[in-house]
Automatic annotation (TrEMBL):
Lineage: Eukaryota, Metazoa, Ecdysozoa, Arthropoda, Hexapoda
Protein name: Uncharacterized protein
Domain of life: Eukaryota
Organism: Eumeta variegata (Bagworm moth)
Residue ranges, compositional bias (Polar residues): 60-70
Segments of this protein annotated with the region Disordered: 1-23, 60-94
Length: 94
């Protein structure tokens, strides 16, 4: 595995809606079966079996996406048309 960041599998008991992996964590050092990674500011040595590579895109910063101005060549997005069909008549409450 040659990625710069990894996800770490948490081996503790967790609830149904809690994620199985934490991260991404920065890789500090690689060996054959163990990696040294930064977890919450500390160096932790973990087995390769508990790691999953993290693929980080170069342009994934949210500030670049929020500050993006539309160019003149982009066509405007058409409005959504919502069509309603009554399935039964509404009864009036006395």
């Amino acid at each position: 595995m040659s990625s710069t960041h990894v996800f770490l599998r948490e081996d503790r008991r967790r609830g149904a809606l809690q994620p199985a992996y934490s991260g991404p964590h920065k890789v500090i050092q690689r060996n054959d079966k163990v990696f040294k990674i930064a977890v919450k500011g500390k160096e932790v040595t973990v087995s390769l079996d508990r790691l999953k590579p993290a693929y980080i895109l170069a342009d994934s910063s949210p500030t670049k996406q929020l500050n993006k101005k539309p160019t003149v060549n982009e066509p405007p997005t058409p409005p959504q048309i919502i069509k309603t069909t009554p399935y039964r008549q509404a009864s009036q409450i006395p």
